Amino acid sequence: MNNVLVTCPPMLGQIDSLRDYAKSKGIELHAQNVVQTLSEEELIEKVPLYEGWIIGDDPASRKVFEAAKKGKLKAALKWGIGVDNVNFDACRDLNIPFTNTPNMFGGEVADVAVGYLMGLARDLFSIDRDIRAKLSWPKPAGISVSGKSVGVVGFGDIGYQLAKRLIGFDVNIVAYDPGVEGSRALESVVRKTWGDGLDTLDFLIFTCSLNKHNYHMLDTDSISKLKRGCYVINVARGPLIDEEALLAALRSGHIAAAALDVFEREPLPESSELRSFPKCIFGSHNGSNTVEAVKRASIEAINKLADFLNEKN
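Above: the chain sequence. Below: its structure as tokens.
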């Protein structure tokens, strides 16, 4: 039986229901108490004790993999889509088989993006907070969604699923993604190069993966090109947005409000100025976390890791 460390919070939430299936694949799952991620130092201490590792958003650095390779680690897997926290070069150099579970959560994350869009447009979350905390009965005038222009940054699985949903809202959709060609059979989607048409958007939604080319792609310069009063939504990765630039735009009103499921630092620091903007909506990097999606991705993770470990035995 191969012992596998699990540090991915969504999978940890269902781990007891997965143990029997994992055992049928020759895997004993070991849960680690994690809020969002373990530190590099904690990983260096723990990962070498296991034959396999199912990674969340932890800093899977070269130092961690080098320590793990000196221990028992034979293979690793990133639970979910994004792999920006994993040092692929280290895995290759150390001959550690590695993969992820792509195309598992497109619909679920797209649903959250739509929820954020509606929440911003109609002030739904700030109304809820005022009724609860202030015992008030607010009636702010929102904006109608129909006829608005929505930019979708990333036209992979999540972006495509989001565009399909947005079509029903009678909006104009602009997709930005240099790695995907065409409208993917969605005739109402217009393709543009990043930066082009930002001044026409009422909403800008990030659904893309993070890489060295798009770090802080929403910065002071690109924000200045946005229509004043635009709303920004991020269900992808925090560092796609320069938070200092976003804060300046929120202060000035150039960006009306933001809905962020992800941040540059997670969990969001208590001292973050973002907390002072009541119309903004915040999540806990939880867009993919539904019962069905987590089970689907976790079974896929167990299967792939079992294949690696069986090859090593």
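Residues 106-282 form a domain with the Rossmann fold fold (CATH 3.40.50.720).
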